[in-house]
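Support request, please re-run this one:
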Amino acid sequence: MFAAILTCGLLMTSCRDDDPSSAPADEVEAQLRQMTLREKVGQMFYVRMESLDTTIHWNTYADLQENPMYDVNNVVRGVNTKYPVGGIILYAWNINNESQLARLISDIRTLNGHPLLCIDEEGGRIARIAKNSNFNVEVVEPMGEIGKTGDPNNAYHAGNVIGSYLSKYGFDIDFAPVADVNTNPENIVIGDRAFSDDPAVAAPMVVNYLQGLKDAGVTGCIKHFPGHGDTKADTHYGYASTQKTWQEMLQCEMVTFKAGIQWGCQLIMTAHVGAPKVTGSDIPSTLSSVILQDKLRGELGYQNIIITDAMEMGAITQQFTSAEAAVGSIQAGVDIVLGPRNFIEAFDAVVKAVETGVIPEERINQSVRRILKLKMAS
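Re-run finished. Output below.
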């Protein structure tokens, strides 16, 4: 077992033999040339299964919990013939037991777009599988408790335990760990999902958790950029913002994200939080080119995949249509649009934006190249 503690001074020692950046460029380009516009756009959408069933109408997450979707049905298959997807995210209400999950994942593998399988399995209170009594897996304590130990090996163990059972069941991507620094005691959404309120403690925990996932064969994703730890509101239900300046973020939130980037993380998830003292407006970071292009790609040098937080969340849907949010986030610099409220509307809007020149096709190609590299390494 990998036992070395990855600290901020040793981050570059991460092994890169299976790093997607090493995927042959000519192989990626060859595949890209063979893809239609719809196939390319489809790769940029990671959706819940219910998004492909146009007969399902829901208002709250409780609606989905009360009518759990456990199978790939004929409606999903029919819609998917025209609307390919790059990834499927499963939630607790899609997972009943081991045999059902195995059948479901096998069926998802046959869908148009060759979707990767994704899940939120952080440990603690966000654990779709570990909190299901039908699964006999080790329950990982909250990251805040792991952070209190001060030992990054414990974060490695958490990531490796979770990655091992996710790999066993067939998942490719875990939307974890949380890289937020939980500096606001009034924060109601992050709390003990974060390792610490001290970035110097959190940073080595984040990279060790990522390494634990990687060693188990699962790709991790650090979230929520540029930081959700200093907010009060919950973006699931409405607008939230941070009042920090960029210089203040560099001293705190960016310490963990820079550590993850230097280690070689393949996915960074955006936060739907506004950062008016950075961007000059109240726009959510998910739709801000200042945050994603100028800061994340430009200043921090991140070259891999940017994925949105779920676009069905209130912070987005209360201000934007699914079409506006999808097009706007891609224009801002995201590569993958996760969980749009209305997938069909969002997909069609992106295709139209390319066909009318609002989004250059080369901009789509840039994202699809990154996605294909990841898929070739998965």
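The longest strand covers residues 45-48. The mean pLDDT is 91.
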